[in-house]
Automatic annotation (TrEMBL):
The keyword Oxidoreductase applies. InterPro entries: KR_dom, NAD(P)-bd_dom_sf, SDR_fam. This is Oxidoreductase. One of its GO terms (biological process) is bile acid metabolic process. Gene3D superfamilies: NAD(P)-binding Rossmann-like Domain. Keywords: NAD, Oxidoreductase. The keyword NAD applies. It comes from the Bacteria.
Length: 260
């Protein structure tokens, strides 16, 4: 398929994990990419990996901190300057934060997680939506989490920020559908990415792989998801085939969200 032929897609958190996986799928399907991340090394690794899978791909990279609105303005302007438009936006950059009981959760750490996971998503939507509204079309996929639709023990900052992403998605989808822009979120569960590995190491230390087995025990499929599985979903949701999917959240968690 060439669902992204002549389409321009921005992906934040493009230097690893879900961002890299989604970028690869979009590129394979003919899309032009602007990859955003704070990690210059990760961006270059993503670019080379994507070019191996899709040698014809047009890929631009830019270092930016999504928690800084000026940086967000910069990457949006960069995309428009390079390609003239923005058809899709995978608003994906995020962190898990430190784990602790709510009463012991540091104020600075809480603010750090919210700044990146929630404010960063808001800034991205705010400035990309201006472009898409003027174009009269576009698609945004925000990365929420199962932690945005149910509780996650010892991760108050993460859960609060991801619940906020769900609220922003639903509200903005209602506002911008009339302008030809669809907005949705994904809610990944246990996907084996560097971020999830870091979270497991917080839980289990040297025995993090055992912690991983316990982590997926709540999943009816009893396994971790693969980043490429999320990449396939994101590519579909960004494509014109999913234009009528709006103001909603799509779990990709092996059924975890619905298991009591």
């Amino acid at each position: 398929m060439n669902r992204f032929e002549d389409k321009v897609v921005i992906i934040t958190g493009g230097g690893s994990g879900l961002g890299r996986a989604a970028a690869k799928q979009v590129a394979v399907e003919g899309g032009k990419l602007v990859l955003v991340d704070l990690n210059a090394k990760g961006l270059e690794e993503s670019k080379q990996e994507i070019l191996t899978a899709a040698p014809q791909a047009e890929i631009e990279t830019i270092e930016a901190n999504v928690a800084n609105e000026e940086d967000v303005k910069k990457y949006v302007a960069f995309a428009v300057e390079k390609f003239g438009k923005i058809d899709g936006f995978f608003n994906n950059a995020g962190i898990e934060g430190k784990q602790n009981l709510t009463e012991d959760f540091g104020i600075e750490e809480f603010q750090r997680v919210v700044d990146i996971n929630l404010n960063g998503v808001f800034y991205g939507m705010k400035h990309v939506l201006k472009v898409m509204k003027e174009q009269g079309q576009g698609s945004i996929v925000n990365t929420a989490s199962v932690g945005g639709i149910r509780g996650v023990g010892n991760q108050s900052g993460y859960a609060a920020s991801k619940h906020g992403v769900v609220g922003l998605t639903r509200n903005s989808g209602i506002e911008y559908g009339q302008f030809g822009v669809s907005i949705k979120a994904i809610a990944p569960g246990a996907i084996m990415t560097p971020m999830v590995e870091g979270s497991l190491k917080q839980m289990g230390g040297d025995n993090w792989e055992e912690a991983g087995k316990e982590f997926v025990s709540v999943n009816p499929m009893k396994r971790f998801g693969k980043p490429e599985e999320v990449g396939y979903l994101v590519a579909f949701l960004l494509s014109n085939q999913a234009d009528f999917i709006n103001a909603t959240v799509v779990p990709i968690d092996g059924g975890q969200s619905y298991k009591y």
